[in-house]
Design goal:
Elements lengths: L3 E2 L10 H6 L8 H6 L2 E2 L6 E2 L4 H10 L11 H22 L6 H11 L5 E4 L6 E4 L3 H17 L7 E3 L8 E3 L12 H17 L8 H6 L3
Parallel strand pairs: 1-3
Antiparallel strand pairs: 2-3, 4-5, 6-7
Helix pairs in contact: 4-5, 4-6, 5-6
The structure holds zinc ion (ZN).
C-alpha cells in the first residue's frame, strides 16, 4: 500500500511545510527515526517524506549531513527501499522470526557503503564530515544501526506505540521499561483525552466525529 500524504487536522491535504514539520527524530535510534518517516502505520500510512525537499530536510534534521545536499528522485527511492528493508528486519527480529533474504540483502548493501568520515580542521578544534556519496554515506548510518539494533541488547527495548493508529517503533530507555507511547505529547495525551471523554460521555452516546478527526494527526 502506498502511504498517503499527511493530512491536516481537518483531513485535507497539508501543505508541504507542515509535512516537514511532522518529521520525527525522537525514536531513540537512527534506524527507528528512519522508520518514523512513515506515520500512522496502524491505520492509513502517511508518507512524511513525499518529495526530494522533504528528504533533504530529513537528512539534515537527522544530522546525517552537515548541510543540505542535492538529492535526486532515485536517491529518495533508495531511502524508501532501505526503509522497507529496515522495517522488515526489525519487525522480524521483534517477533523472533527470520527476515526475508531479500530484506537482509538490501540492508547489507546499504550498510556496506562507508558512512561519512570525520576530518579535523587545521585549527584542531572543529570537525567536518566527508563522504564521496553524501546520500549513500548518510543512509549507511541507519543501515548499520539497524544491524547493530537487531543483534544487540537494545532489541529488547524496542516498543511499538500503544496508539493503534500510530504503532511507531521507538527505543524505550525509561528505567522501568514500561513506556507505552511514542510521545506523551502526541499519542499519550490523545489517548488520555479519549479515555476521559469515554468516562464522562452520557450513556448511549458514541464518540463525536470531531474526536475521531482529532486522532487523524
Ligand atoms: Zn504514537
Amino acid at each position: 500500500m502506498q502511504p498517503q500524504r499527511d493530512a491536516g487536522p481537518d483531513g485535507t491535504a497539508a501543505p508541504a511545510g507542515s509535512v516537514v514539520a511532522r518529521l520525527r527524530f525522537d525514536a531513540g535510534r537512527p534506524c527507528l527515526n528512519l522508520l518514523a518517516t512513515i506515520g500512522r502505520r496502524g491505520a492509513t500510512p502517511v508518507e512524511r517524506v513525499p518529495a526530494t525537499p522533504d528528504f533533504v530536510a530529513w537528512l539534515t534534521g537527522a544530522g546525517l549531513v552537515q548541510a543540505p545536499v542535492p538529492v535526486s528522485e532515485p536517491e529518495l527511492q533508495q531511502m524508501r527501499r532501505l526503509r522497507d528493508a529496515v522495517y522488515a528486519v526489525v519487525d522480524a527480529a521483534r517477533c523472533t522470526r527470520a527476515p526475508t533474504p531479500g530484506a537482509v540483502a538490501v540492508l547489507n548493501s546499504f550498510a556496506a557503503h562507508p558512512p561519512p568520515s570525520p576530518r579535523l580542521a587545521v585549527g584542531g578544534r572543529t570537525v567536518t564530515w566527508h563522504s564521496d556519496d553524501p546520500v549513500r554515506g548518510a543512509l549507511a548510518v541507519p543501515a548499520r544501526d539497524a544491524i547493530d539494533l537487531v543483534t544487540g541488547p537494545d532489541l529488547a527495548r524496542v516498543r511499538e506505540c500503544a496508539a493503534p493508529e500510530c504503532r511507531m517503533l521507538f527505543l524505550d530507555s525509561s528505567r522501568g521499561g514500561r513506556r507505552r507511547w511514542c510521545s506523551m505529547a502526541r499519542c499519550g495525551n490523545r489517548a488520555k483525552a479519549r479515555a476521559h471523554a469515554a468516562r464522562t460521555r452520557p450513556p448511549g452516546r458514541t464518540a463525536s466525529p470531531r474526536g475521531a478527526a482529532e486522532f487523524q494527526r
